[in-house]
Prior knowledge:
With 93 residues, this protein is mainly alpha-helical. It has helices at 2-31, 42-68, 79-89. The longest helix has 30 residues, at 2-31.
Amino acid sequence: MALNNNDKEAAQTREQLKKQKEEQKETLSSKRKRIRVRLIPIWLKVFIVAVLLVASVILGAMVGYSVMGEGEAKDIFEKSTWTHIMELVNKEK
């Protein structure tokens, strides 16, 4: 009968150890923060957005000047074109 009590006590202590280990795992996993590895760094994202913004402004000016203004698209790269546009915008009525 002494063996039975020892077996029961051993089983109880094993269960208690398992519970303690599970609790420790839960507390460790809640304390750990998952580190996220970015595929594209933030500085590269900012650079890409800036390049796309500049490209869209240039493309918009080319389309606007050539289609709506009936000029040639390559003329937007000339200084005289921009001075003429600024004169039209700043013209007093």
